[in-house]
Write a structure and sequence with these properties.
single chain, mainly beta, three-stranded antiparallel beta sheet, 35% strand, elongated
């Protein structure tokens, strides 16, 4: 499910910020396996005018290394890899990256 700020009913806009990008995502619900990830573009702005996603990483724990590699590669497109996806002493597959939107991710296959 994706709801953009432009989809908000007029009566709900009263008193809201007028400088919000109407294309920005107000609410999103993503199903990942049996898990649910909720998201929004409503985060604070950094000094460059973009969204700030500092101080946290989202973590995905797929069931096998092949699925982990696929998730990692998809999230890495247009982003920056901080630790390549690989086997480690604690995991069959682990990697860290920042996606093209500036969100930090960790993929861990136990």
């Amino acid at each position: 499910m994706v709801m953009r700020f432009k989809d908000m009913p007029e009566e709900a806009r009263q008193g809201g910020s007028q400088d919000v990008n109407p294309e920005a995502i107000m609410h999103a619900r993503l199903l990942i396996g049996e898990g649910v990830l909720m998201a929004s573009d409503g985060c604070p702005q950094d000094d460059s005018g973009g969204a700030s996603h500092k101080g946290f990483s989202l973590s995905l724990n797929p069931s096998d290394a092949e699925q982990g590699r696929k998730l990692f590669d998809n999230l890495a497109q247009g982003g920056q890899v901080t630790m390549p996806y690989q086997a480690t002493f604690w995991a069959k597959g682990f990697g860290m990256l920042t996606d093209k939107f500036g969100v930090n991710w960790m993929i861990n296959v136990e």
